[in-house]
Structures are given as C-alpha cells and as structure tokens.
Task: structure prediction
Amino acid sequence: MTTIEDANNALLKILDVGSKKNVVELGWIKNVRVTIPRVILTLSLPSFANSQRDRIVQEVRSTLLNFHDISDVQIELDNNIPQSEIKSENNVPDLQKVKGIKHIIAVSSGKGGVGKSTIAVNVACSLAKLGLKIGLLDADIYGPNTPLMLGVSEENPKVTEGIGNDQRLIPINKFGISLVSMGFLIEEGQPVIWRGPMLNSIIRQFLYQVEWENLDFLVIDLPPGTGDAQISLAQSVPISGTIIVTTPQQVSLQDARRGLAMFKQLGVPLLGIVENMSAFIPPDMPHKKYEIFGKGAGKTLADENNLKLLAQIPIEIPLVSESNDGIPISISQPNKESSIKFKELAKLIKHKFND
Ligand code: ADP
Result:
C-alpha cells in the first residue's frame, strides 16, 4: 500500500527550473496525506515561481497517479503572504524600506509606447556608468521588454538557499545592473491575465523577496496607466522620486496628466517630466532636428505642476536598433545626443539623492 513516504519520495524528481532543486526540499509541496485511494497535499509556491505552477501541478498528478492504488490527487493552494503584506492595525500599510536599497526611482507614463522602458533602461545604465550600484525592476506586465533591451531574455534567474518565504530571487547582472523582470516569469506568448491582487503581491515580492545587494538606486519600470501596480508600490515602499514620461504631442497630455494626478494623490514625490521623442535627428544630418510629433507637451505638463522638465530625448534610429540587439544606446553609442541626455539625467539624480 502506498505510504506518505512513498509519495514524498516519488515527488523528489519534480524540479524547480531555476535552482534545479526538488519541490519537496524547497517546501513548495508539503502536508502530503495519503488515504487510499486519495492523496491530498498543499502547493505553496513563492510568486516568482508562479509561471511553473501548471507544470508542477501536472507532474505531481501524473507522478502520484502512477501508484496502482492511487486514483485521486487533491491539491490545496497555500498562498504565501510575506511579512510585508501584513497591514498595520488601522489597515493602512506601513511604508517599509527595502533591505539593500537606498533609493527607489519609479518611471511611469500615462499610456504605453511612449518610451518608458527605454528611458528606465538607459537611465539605469547611465547611473551604473557613474559608478553607482543599480538595480532595475521591470514591473511592466503588459510589455516586460527590459530583458530583451539588455540582451538577457534567454536567462533564468536563480533562487537562493532556503525554503518557502526565506527564498530570494537572484537578479540577472548585465552592464552593471541587477535586473529582475516580469519577463522572466511570464512565458513568451502567454496572455497577460494577472489580476489586481496577484499583481499586488508580485510587486511586493519583487521588492522584498529579491536578493538586492546594497543598491544606491533601484529604478522601477512601472506598467503604463494608473493601475494596481502604481498604488501597490506607493503603499509599500518609500519612493524617492517618480519620473513621468510623455511624448511632445498635445494629445499625450490627457494621459500624462491622469498619471501624474494619481501619484500626487498617493503622496508620492515627483522628480519631474521626461519628454521622449522630442525631435527626430536624421543620422546623416545630426545638426538637424525635425519635430515630427509636435512640441510642448513636456513643458506644459511640467509648468502646470511646478515640476522640472528633466530632459528632452530625441528620436534616434540607434535607440530602436540597439535596444532590439540587446545593447542600450547609452552603452553602445555614448556620444549620441540621447546618450548625452541620459547621462545628464543620471547625474541630476545622483546629485539630488546620492551626494
Ligand atoms: P513603453 O515602455 O512606453 O511602452 P518602449 O520603451 O517599449 O515604450 O518604446 C516603444 C518603442 O519605441 C520601442 O521600439 C523603442 O525602441 C522605441 N523608442 C522609444 N524611445 C525612442 C526614441 N527616443 N527614439 C527612437 N525610438 C524610440
């Protein structure tokens, strides 16, 4: 007759893809109970392993159903709630500094496609080039592009020793940046069906369950718009400054205003506005600029809110091609105008917070 020990032993062959450790040792499968013909067990996955859930469930079932006297496998889900999720008495979450991070800079935009990720990646690279220790957290669930932009989309982050909530995700290092991205957790081609509460806990786990090592700055690439990610972040950690990215068209203003108003309402400090795609610089005529997307939205937004227009980044062809090749322009072509602007922006951030 199949015993608990038999069931546990059989489950040892099911492995976490990152650490290659088995799910029993990791504490992801626990409380195995056998009452022939049924096995009941608890699945307790840290959020960063959620993308493996369906595979693990399938393997657990098929492994246990191999026993001739088992015909029913019931899997209970145990939601890991990290300490940081526990609210204070009045139900308002306490802002909690993240161990190993001095300052958090959030990069946000009212809508997608304005170059928010491009700005986040290049600012992070430029800060790293100033000799600072930099992390990049890509929380953009709708388009987690930073692994591609940094040429690490094939990599799988590893997990530290320990079990359950003691485990930490180890960021991927590239160009002096420690990167963690939703892109590592969502399989390619999978539709984005994360619900608000799940996204909430993912963002918090990204902050508290990642092995960040003595960062001067963590740059966070937020999803566009005014959703749960922004609120969750604002209610979890003290943010030093938020950068709002917009394009120069007047029609962008409406979205950008909405985003900005939300951060104000949440009491998050705003660092200023970055206007992206300000003018096109033709590669063969670098002294010329064409304002193909109109002009002025960045300045209008900054003036309306008494904020600084921190930078105006031009449209440059290498900004697209190089990021498709996995090398941000600020690394590959430091003399291009946009790279110079990113460097100035990085210096401004350094001097404001780190000097
Ligand atoms: P978002 O994060 O706002 O959705 P991305 O950073 O992914 O936007 O940029 C969208 C597209 O525009 C990408 O293909 C990117 O390479 C391109 N892009 C962004 N900024 C610029 C720029 N200043 N010049 C040229 N292309 C740009």
